[in-house]
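Design request, tokens follow.
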């Protein structure tokens, strides 16, 4: 697949069953992802990588509970349970994921004051991760995306990629969603509107 990359989003222990922010059936996508890694010119994994005490953690907001919304300087923010803390077991990739096939691992969410869902930008939609430049210099024009969770990090990554001019397809069979108050349907609608193909 000339000029095509696979972006594997946040397939980490904390997003799989038993993790701090578990996505239902999150681990079920691992064999399917492993099976297609060899089909792409470029393979990139993303890894949620928060410092302890990250501002998006509900534990840092007295009286607030996980999954509540708050306002940050960069906009609305879901308050999450503590998850994917740097160096922790929860932040590690799922043990069955073939991590050795990744040519680049993008760590995101490592700035304490801002969350980062997208593989391309922090949640201010301005601070870049460097992924766009890497893909451009590798000659990539089209992206397939898989991983966790469909309605948050996968969606944000897909929307940013489309905005940057990449051809984008989300392989829904190799994704799982959180579906927080209808967020999954809203994500699908937003992605289709932006020209993202749902496969």
């Amino acid at each position: 697949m000339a000029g095509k990359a696979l972006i594997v989003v946040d397939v980490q222990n904390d997003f799989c069953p038993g993790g701090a922010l578990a996505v239902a059936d999150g681990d079920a996508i691992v064999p399917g992802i492993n099976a297609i890694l060899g089909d792409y010119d470029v393979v990139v994994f993303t890894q949620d990588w928060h410092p302890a005490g990250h501002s998006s953690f509900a534990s840092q907001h007295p009286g607030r509970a996980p999954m509540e919304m708050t306002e940050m300087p960069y906009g609305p923010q879901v308050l999450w349970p503590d998850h994917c803390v740097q160096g922790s077991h929860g932040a590690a990739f799922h043990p069955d994921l073939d991590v050795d096939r990744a040519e680049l691992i993008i760590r995101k969410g490592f700035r304490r004051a801002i969350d980062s869902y997208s593989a391309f930008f922090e949640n201010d939609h301005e601070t870049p991760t460097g992924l766009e430049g890497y893909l451009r210099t590798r000659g990539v024009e089209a992206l397939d995306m898989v991983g966790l969770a469909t309605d948050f990090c996968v969606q944000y990554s897909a929307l940013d990629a489309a905005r940057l001019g990449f051809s984008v397809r989300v392989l829904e069979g190799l994704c799982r969603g959180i579906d927080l108050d209808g967020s999954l349907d809203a994500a699908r609608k937003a992605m289709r509107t932006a020209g993202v193909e749902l496969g």
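Comment from the thread starter after seeing the answer: thanks! The longest strand covers residues 167-176.
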